[in-house]
Amino acid sequence: MSTASHRFRTLAGKAMNPIGLGCMSLSWAYGERPTDADGIALLHRAIDVGYDHFDTARLYGQGHNETLVGQALKGKRDKVFLASKMGIFASGEKRGVDCHPNTIRAELEKSLTLLQTDHIDLYYMHRRDFTVPIEDSVGAMADLIKEGKIGAIGLSEMSADTLRRAAAVHPIAAMQTEYSPWTRQAEIAVLDACREVGTTFVAFSPVARGVLANGVRDPQALEDGDIRKAMPRFVGENWVHNLALVDAFNAIAAREGVTPAQLSLAWVLGKGDHIVAIPGTGKIAHLEENIARWDWQIPVAVTAEIDALINQQTVAGHRYAQTIRATIDTEDFAEA
């Protein structure tokens, strides 16, 4: 018995594997990135073992990730549902978020070039631009659908209210937000709002940035530049506390005969049949592990056990530093 079926799920009107591939790790954020040749080999292996949904963004490596994905999909474009994102600028003179209609169109053209394709199946606003009405941004993206350049509209890290306003202008295919046993903000309102308006919820970091994949034991040993080293949950006494939760979680996985990553993914997918997950990795072994048990259904009692162990009250530290929190539109829990 399970809380939700793990069979193929619908995203932008297409049935696909509920576990897609987040491509960010091939360019940025978590330690040393693979060589381009290794990255392309990983993407090809992903297709071979059943991944049919790749998620990239202009931000990842400042165009490197889109370029790499474009190279990997030469001759294979029809095998993958391709998602990308625009709106965050983190280099050069322009920094911050810009989702003005003219910017959206210009950024899409750059992405099409880098990805070596004439259409992107799902195009996201990477963050809310608080200076532009969401209706204006969505209207501009709807025009791109009419032109055949994108297949569907997505939002990332936005609130239930923003989703409803956006959906009143044009159907929103996806809402992408961090979600795992140790990051529960989506449960405040967004998961329900997605179900209400017919939007698929796309969970990024579904194995808690590697923590629930038994991938982090000592955050300070991570390589320089790894974004986790600056996140509150990975620092000092917060990490000492959180590591004890991880050890208990790992024990549950061992008892159930799955890996910690597989357990975390099953927990996420079990929270609703309108949810898909996009774990990322730079290693082929992890890529294969993440999808190997894609149809394993977590028992209700195990979900309840995890819910009691790891939740908003038991995890020490916020998911983001204060400066980042100000840029996020998603609902948040009150400070303790």
Automatic annotation (TrEMBL):
Its domain of life reads Bacteria
Q: Where does the record place the NADP-dependent oxidoreductase domain?
A: 18-310
In Pfam terms, one family for this protein is: Aldo_ket_red
Q: Does the keyword Transcription regulation apply?
A: no
Q: Mind listing the UniProt keywords for this protein, alphabetically?
A: Oxidoreductase
Q: Which InterPro entries match?
A: AKR, Aldo-Keto_reductase, NAD(P)_OxRdtase_dom_sf, NADP_OxRdtase_dom
User: What PANTHER family does its record include?
Assistant: AFLATOXIN B1 ALDEHYDE REDUCTASE, ALDO-KETO REDUCTASE YAKC [NADP(+)]
* Protein's name according to its UniProt entry: Aryl-alcohol dehydrogenase-like predicted oxidoreductase
Organism of derivation? Novosphingobium capsulatum
Q: What is the lineage of its organism?
A: Bacteria, Pseudomonadati, Pseudomonadota, Alphaproteobacteria, Sphingomonadales
